[in-house]
UniProtKB/TrEMBL annotation:
Domain of life (superkingdom): Bacteria
UniProt keywords, alphabetically: Carbohydrate metabolism, Cytoplasm, Isomerase, Metal-binding
Residues of the Xylose isomerase-like TIM barrel domain: 44-287
Native source organism of the sequence: Diplocloster agilis
Protein name: Xylose isomerase
Broad class of the protein's primary localization: cytoplasm
Localization: Cytoplasm
A single BP term in Gene Ontology: carbohydrate metabolic process
Matches recorded under PANTHER family: HYDROXYPYRUVATE ISOMERASE (PTHR12110), XYLOSE ISOMERASE-LIKE TIM BARREL DOMAIN-CONTAINING PROTEIN (PTHR12110:SF21)
InterPro entries: IolE/XylAMocC-like (IPR050312), Xyl_isomerase-like_sf (IPR036237), Xyl_isomerase-like_TIM-brl (IPR013022), Xylose_isomerase (IPR001998)
GO molecular function: metal ion binding; xylose isomerase activity
Length: 324
């Protein structure tokens, strides 16, 4: 099984933080981002960020750029962040006008995704959650989200709708904070085309194990997409993959083989200062290295070590195969 690699285009622009509102680089265009990814030689597909007011809004133009450089389009992210109207929630906003707008944005993203032959629409609801106690009616918020996601799924039953979870940011607590809560929501939505995007950094931020999470999602038939990156666990740093961890990625690659994962593995990093294209390429090459490590160690040998008891044998295998 060979993993398929994509890259989120929006993360390769001029990223800003709260101390540098103008960013550390010059702004660029969708055409420049796509050309830059083409030069890496390791990216197979684009994961787009639909923006009705940005430069990834014209499906004809984007498809032409993708075709020019031989890219497929894996999926499209819905624009539910960066809009002041969604400051207190998008799909769960208690203002029915704003909530309806958020749902419409997702439907518009579906329409866009179909025109560029994307396989899924990714929905990350970073603004849906709460910051303080006694701020939110949790039951109502949950039910509003179920209703909204169900409406989006019913709008396009032939399009995969991938829900992305995250512990926190921009809200102090996100409603879809972990894989467990997101799987529960997907079960409540009860539609065949709803599943999950697993962002590795979001799992690490929640002190989770990525191999366990992908197997759990796959066990329910709901692992639609992977976002790959790294962090120090305290925050969603969106660093280059492999810059912090090694063995957890080897286990992840083992699990991806075990479940027969055939979805996309998409680079999702925020290279504020580094060359974004080089950082994306290095993340893919590191993931490929971890995947090859499974062969160096031996898939069957690793399987034999998984017995729920002594963990020393597997680390001996890794050391002898990788660091000899």
């Amino acid at each position: 099984m060979a993993l398929k690699y994509a890259c989120i285009t929006g993360s390769l622009g001029n990223r800003v933080d709260r101390f540098m509102a103008g960013g550390y680089k010059e702004d660029n265009t969708a055409a420049e981002r796509i050309e830059g990814l083409a030069k890496t030689g390791v990216v197979e597909a684009l994961e787009l960020c639909y923006d009705p007011d940005g430069d990834e809004k014209d499906p004809v133009e984007i498809q032409a750029l993708a075709d020019k450089y031989g890219f497929k389009i894996s999926g499209v992210n819905a624009p539910l962040n960066g809009d002041k109207r969604f400051g207190y929630g998008s799909l769960t906003n208690t203002n029915p006008e704003y909530r309806a707008l958020a749902v419409q944005y997702c439907k518009d993203t579906v329409d866009f995704a179909k025109k560029v032959n994307a396989e899924f629409v990714n929905i990350w609801m970073g603004e849906d959650g709460f910051d303080y106690v006694f701020q939110t009616d949790y039951t109502r918020q949950w039910n509003l989200m179920v209703e909204a996601v169900r409406e989006i799924c019913d709008y396009a039953p032939d399009m995969k709708i991938a829900l992305e979870f995250k512990l926190r940011e921009p809200r102090n607590r996100c409603t879809l904070d972990t894989a467990g809560s997101t799987l529960l929501l997907a079960k409540d939505v009860d539609r065949k085309n709803v599943g999950l995007t697993v962002d590795l950094g979001h799992v690490f931020q929640a002190q989770g194990n990525v191999a366990q999470v992908v197997e759990m999602c796959a066990n329910h038939g709901m692992l639609y997409n992977l976002h790959i990156n790294d962090n120090y666990s305290a925050w969603d740093d969106d660093m280059m993959l492999g810059s912090v961890r090694y063995t957890e990625y080897i286990e992840l690659c083992y699990s991806l083989r075990k479940i027969g994962y055939d979805g996309w593995t998409s680079v999702d990093i925020f290279p504020f200062r580094e060359n974004g294209y080089a950082a994306a390429a290095e993340s893919i090459r590191m993931m490929q290295t971890f995947d090859r490590a499974v062969d160096l160690i031996g898939y069957e040998k690793l399987t034999e070590c998984i017995n729920g008891t002594d963990a020393t044998k597997v680390f001996g295998l890794i050391r002898e195969a990788i660091f000899k």
